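Posting this for the archive.
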Amino acid sequence: MYLLPPGNYCFYLRKSRVDIEAEARGEEDTYARHEKVLLDLAARLGVSLTEVYREKPATSGERISERPEMLRLLGDVEEGKWDGVFVIEVERLARGDTMDQGIVAQAFKYSETLIITPMRIYNPNDPNDEEYFEFGLFMSRREFKTITRRLQGGRVRSVEDGKYVGNKPPYGYIRKKLPGKGYTLEPDPEQAPIVQLIFSLYTDTDPEKRMGTGRIARYLNEELKVPTANASKTGWIVATINSLLRNPIYIGRVRWSSRPQIKKKNSKSRPRKNREDWLEVQGLHEPIIDEITFNRAQKIMEENSHPPAPKGKISNPLAGLIRCDMCGGAIVLKPDKKTHPYLLCQSSTCKNVSSYLHLVEERLLQSLNELLFNIKREINNIPDPHENDQADLRIKLLQDQLKTLLKKKDELTIQKNNLHDLVERGIYSTEDYLERSKVLTQRLDEINDSILKSNKEIQHEERRSRSRSELAPIIEKVLQEYTAAASAAEKNALLRSILSQVTYRKIKGGRWSGEQSNFEIKIYPKFSFH
């Protein structure tokens, strides 16, 4: 039997769709079976596995970006942490597009990391192994695409038959199994009347009684105390009400591909498509709302819609910076044709009161002036030999602490490397091996975190006095240029250069009361000087 050279080895586990379906039929847990196979293989090859990268069962295999353990593994492989990675088959590493497959192949090739499977050991720097490896990934991708097309085609045919293909029913309905294959919907006796109430309030023929989406959200949250479908802490919000009012499911229709998922390099989104571009047919389920009421709601929404702001244009100088100090949500800018633009927490359930934008800006600039004054005062007091001695002592203590941590890390690493000997001698069972490995890995992670923290604290001490002197001229420059800035975008860029966040709180008083300035803001500079 060929033996692997001594070194650091780990194993990677991911369940496929077939594995999950097999477990649902009562078969053995896939991870338990794969762990035993790989541990036995490692014993035969004469090496010890010291860490496991185990994806959560529901993790998609399509994209690396959706697999946190794979990302962690690739990072460790690129840093040269492992001499080899055990996996049940190479297809578990990458089943995505050619870019993902290339990332995996290059990570293993440039770090000279072996890929060990029960069928073959791949050396990515061996031309023959590299060809086998890349061909295996190609065939895996082809199989995945075929399965995806078949599943998508089946969903479209189900929608055309009037079935409901979503995994989660819309608010107001319960998912019901049909004889044979597929599902439909039936009204939820508790939620369906709420849907009817929302449409009734929004489309009331009496303008005095008619409610907008914001008022409906507050009415459901505060007066009726109706929970949302997910029992969300934020409760009903305007976006949820708008989505419900637009959904043709409530007039007995089913739709598909109205908001398809668009995947980009590092993100996913669900933009709303034009109605003529999605599939919508009569469903098998009973409607909750009549078509006259539904069409009236669509007309009211169209009449009250506002054109979206130009993409990429910033109208709020505090955009992306200011957050609610009560609920943590975003504070947004609202225009007001009669008075001035004002800032308001976007959560309909939050008690934070609005304030005019210009008053918040004035307070923020005042806070920056106070910060500048305090920094200059500290700078003038810095030439103190005693303070410098204290700083040197703090740095020395931190460096000694770092040396102790590094020594402890080396000791734990040796313990991890000796685990397999204990297994061979019968002192540890496979379960003991995995448990002990997990404990040592956790302790090593904690020490690595402590090492990282110590390094940051040393750097912080070394930068502390320098940051004070560097920050002062930057704040002065921002204050000088802010009032002269011609656009909200310029002001926003200036604030972002020195601030990471601003929080806003106002408990009572409105924009029209005598307590317009009765609010609090806190600024969080990017530079640390304490």
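Confidence is low (pLDDT under 50) at residues 383-388. Residues 203 and 293 are 7 Å apart (CA to CA).
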